[in-house]
Amino acid sequence: METDACMFCSMEIPIVELARHENAHREEQMLHAKRKRRKKRRKETLKKKEKKICTVCGDYFANMYSHMASHSDERKYCCDQCGGTFKLKVHLQKHQLVHTPVGKYVCTVCEKAVKTPYSLKVHMRTHEGVKPFACVLCNRRFSTKQGRDKHLKNPKLRCLTPHFLADFV
């Protein structure tokens, strides 16, 4: 099968799959640029707002109303499908995605649908072979922070056994 190098990652890809692979990179770049613009706008907005100090924990916050909910036991937002309760409306809205059968973010490589832009970003790593999270003990790499943390908590890990650690002493 004839292959060619991806213009973004230089990975050798079969020619019939190359366009789809490169489109995945383009989509990731567009998402990254969009996030960067959004983050810049948020930063500018925060500079304009005066941050207030929380009388409970002493930290500074621009939106004291939202922050104060974290100190309260009151959960005034209720999911109408499962009865779950939440302190903030945004937490309820994020939760409601679990009741949505189909995601609206679609992978350009395999057409898998996911529910959030972050899930799509993580999914794209499976096609790109990107594993940015490394175990500090054995250097094994993972595509998600959660995968690495689960690996570290596994008591049967070879990298946690004394004979393996002896190589590093």
Based on secondary structure, the structural category is alpha+beta
- The total count of strands amounts to 10
Report the order of strands and helices: EEHEEHEEHEEHEEHH
At the first level of CATH, what is the class of the largest domain?
A: Alpha Beta
Report the helical percentage: 40-55%
Strand portion: 5-15%
| CATH architecture group name of the largest domain | 2-Layer Sandwich
Oligomer: single chain
Output the CATH topology of the largest domain: Double Stranded RNA Binding Domain
The number of domains is 2
Query: Which term fits the overall shape?
Result: extended
Low-confidence stretches: 161-169
Number of helices: 6
What is the overall pLDDT average? 83
How would you sum up the major sheet?
Answer: 2 strands, antiparallel
What's the CATH H-level homologous superfamily of the largest domain? Classic Zinc Finger
Q: Give the strand order of the largest sheet, numbering strands 1, 2, ... along the chain.
A: 1-2
Q: Write down the Rg.
A: 22 Å
Distance between the termini: 47 Å
Domain C2H2-type: 77-100, 105-132
InterPro entries: Znf_C2H2_sf, Znf_C2H2_type
Region (Disordered): 27-47
Subcellular location: Nucleus
